[in-house]
Write a structure and sequence with these properties.
Blueprint: H1 2-9, H2 11-31, E1 36-44, H3 59-66, H4 69-79, H5 85-91, E2 92-95, E3 102-109, H6 112-164, H7 171-199, E4 205-209, H8 222-247, H9 254-261, E5 265-268, H10 284-299, E6 309-315, H11 321-334, E7 340-344, H12 351-354, H13 364-368, H14 374-377, E8 379-381, E9 384-390, H15 403-414, E10 419-424, H16 431-437, E11 442-448, H17 454-466, E12 471-477, E13 519-521, E14 600-603, E15 616-619, H18 621-625
Parallel strand pairs: 5-12, 6-10, 6-11, 7-9, 7-10, 11-12, 14-15
Antiparallel strand pairs: 1-3, 1-4, 2-3, 8-9, 13-15
Helix pairs in contact: 2-8, 4-5, 4-6, 6-7, 10-11
């Protein structure tokens, strides 16, 4: 499966290499000179007086004879060609079919006629040479026998004269008669040997399939060149793809992270890319992130009392992966009924695109300039009333964020939300990622499959190890499309950021400042009930134990009343404002929830009704329309 996945990733290299190989094969076919081949088949027989029909000819030897210079010179004479014998030999090839007495003589030439003539000429020249050799051998043997017969006849004539000149019963006569008998027998033997030679018909063989005129060239073989080029290209492509795969350190599978880097793998999302949006609960990715949420709820340490969990998710390479995971993980937390706040320090965060590119009234840049509080700058998420987002706004990416202010913002959000999720850029680029990591409850590295390299993950881990950050593990996210152009951050304001809140004339609220008519976020329930301080009952809302102080419109302090903090919230030790759920003077600001109740967002015109222990974070209808 690993090799199949490797081939699937690098298939384009193999395809390109195969196409290049096919092109090279076609180019070679066009460059090569066209040649034609014609073949003549010969049946070779035993030749000579001693030929035995059952004896086979050694065709391997005869094949070498065909390609000899002697045959080439005879073929040259038949062709009447000006080429040398060596050149003709290089153009001829001889094959011997198995278990046969046939020679196949093939001749290669630049034209069909030349190939046909050359093959026939070599075949005829071989037969002529073989016939001439056999004839010469037969003639030599016949001549030798005739000379022996003539010599024997001479000796026989001399013996006959000797017999005639000696007495009949003499020893010499008997000896001469014995010599005559021997010579007579010898003469008869020589004549018996000469007679077959004189009647022998020499047959060296015959042409059983004469050379035909070729209809198409034998070379170049386009099919063979094309197949060879494709095969060579594929082999070259496999080598190149293998080398590139070994040099490529991008992470594609969860086991790569665990095997190469030793970083725990919390979740490996499906490799199929998902839309850059807050996915519905039934989506496969949402279900996987819901399981991750369950794991984090059971494994992360319990937070301090009256303080929500803070989880930092950071990119390990440029891209929208961390924002995609943060947005959908926050939605998974919010679906449980918990209050969730998301804050992002990335100027190019995809969270704005995921939420439909809203136009928030305030952003993180305003909070860092101390124009508004963090609670006022939160933006609601449509369809998830438990979720609020603090978008980056016009953050200056070239200036380091004030970490001390960021910690104050996180503390303010953690005091009022069950879960606070922070999105940052990779720690190698964003200094605040490393600085905030040591103050949160857990850090998760978001790795984009097929995009993040092992070296980037190693550098990020090293940054967090230097500050002893609680790194929980990593999440392997699929490649998601880049956010649309509409999600780009707002234009940067001219001039330096204001270091403190701008003053308002005549003590009136500045436009855009938090106002009880627009936004009010009540504190999270606290353990003050255990301290003997009861929460204000709905029916007694606006009545403090020490007596209410005069208030202005809708719970705002009237002129001369006790000072209030930013956004209409009372300062430490201030008098009660008389608004439902606001703290009593000298008492803890955190109020207890009713058993099993959670903090929810509701309209400013709603009342606690039948659920007096349920605290609200209100936004009026006008602001909702905004």
């Amino acid at each position: 499966m690993a090799y199949l996945e490797w081939l699937r990733r690098r298939w384009w290299i193999l395809a390109v290499a195969a196409l290049l190989g096919a092109g090279a094969g076609l180019l070679v076919s066009q460059v090569q000179t066209r040649t034609y081949v014609s073949t003549t088949s010969l049946l070779v027989r035993q030749v000579g007086p001693d030929a035995n029909p059952g004896t086979k000819v050694n065709l391997d030897t005869e094949a070498q004879v065909v390609r000899s210079l002697v045959v080439a010179e005879r073929a040259q004479a038949l062709l009447k060609s000006g080429s040398s014998g060596e050149g003709l030999v290089r153009s001829v090839s001889v094959t011997v079919p198995p278990n046969s007495q046939v020679l196949q003589i093939a001749y290669e030439a630049g034209s069909p006629q030349a190939a046909q003539a050359g093959s026939h000429a070599f075949a005829q020249a071989y037969l002529d040479l073989r016939l001439a050799t056999a004839t010469r051998s037969l003639e030599n043997e016949t001549t030798a026998l005739r000379q022996q017969i003539a010599e024997t006849n001479k000796q026989l004539a001399a013996v006959a004269g000797k017999i005639a000149g000696t007495p009949a019963n003499s020893v010499e006569r008997a000896r001469a008669e014995a010599d005559r008998n021997v010579l007579t027998n010898q003469l008869a033997s020589l004549n018996s040997r000469l007679s077959p030679l004189l009647s022998t018909a020499l047959d060296p063989g015959e042409i059983i399939s004469d050379a035909a005129l070729p209809r198409k060239p034998s070379s170049p073989n386009t099919t063979l060149n094309l197949a060879t080029g494709i095969g060579a290209g594929l082999l070259f492509g496999i080598v190149v793809a293998l080398v590139l795969d070994r040099l490529d350190t991008r992470v594609r599978r969860g086991r790569d992270i665990a095997d190469r880097l030793g970083l725990p793998m919390l979740l490996e999302l499906p490799a199929r890319p998902a839309d850059l949006t807050v996915l519905p609960a039934a989506h496969e990715v949402s279900r996987e992130l819901g399981r991750l949420r369950n794991v984090l709820l059971s494994t992360m340490p319990e937070p301090q009392p009256n303080r929500g969990r803070q989880l930092l998710l950071t990119d390990t390479s440029p891209g929208p992966a961390a924002g995609f995971v943060v947005g959908n993980l926050a939605a998974a937390y919010a679906r449980t009924g918990a209050q969730v706040a998301v804050i992002t320090t990335k100027a190019d965060s995809p969270l704005g695109a995921m939420l439909g590119n809203p136009k928030p009234r305030h952003t993180l840049a305003d909070v860092l300039r101390r124009d508004v509080s963090a609670l006022t700058a939160l933006t609601p998420v449509p369809g998830l009333s438990q979720l609020r987002v603090l978008l980056p706004g016009d953050l200056d990416t070239e200036v380091e964020l004030p970490v001390a202010t960021m910690l104050t913002v996180l503390a303010e959000l953690a005091a009022r939300f069950d879960h606070v999720l922070i999105e940052t850029a990779q720690p190698t680029l964003a200094v605040e990622a490393q600085a905030l990591a040591r103050h949160v409850d857990g850090v998760i590295l978001v790795i984009e499959g097929g995009q993040t390299r092992s070296s980037e993950i190693t550098l990020a881990m090293r940054q967090f190890e230097q500050v002893d950050a609680p790194v929980l593990g990593s999440v392997l996210a699929p490649r998601v499309p880049a956010p649309a152009s509409g999600s780009a951050p707002a234009a940067r304001r001219d001039g330096p950021p204001s270091p403190r809140p701008r003053p308002t004339p005549n003590g009136q609220p500045r436009p855009g400042a938090p106002n009880i008519d627009t936004t009010m976020i009540l504190p999270r329930a606290a353990a003050s009930a255990r301290d003997g301080v009861p929460a204000a009952a709905p029916g007694n809302a606006g009545t403090a134990s020490a007596g209410p102080a005069p208030t202005g419109h809708t719970g705002m302090p009237a002129a001369g009343s006790a000072p209030t903090g930013h956004g209409g919230m009372p300062t430490a030790g201030s008098a009660p404002t008389g608004h439902p759920g606001m703290p009593v003077a000298g008492k803890p600001t955190n109020q207890p929830k009713a058993g099993g109740m959670s903090t929810v967002y509701r309209s400013a015109r709603d009342t606690d009704g039948a659920e007096p222990g349920r605290y609200s974070m209100s936004r009026d209808t006008f602001e909702d329309r905004e």
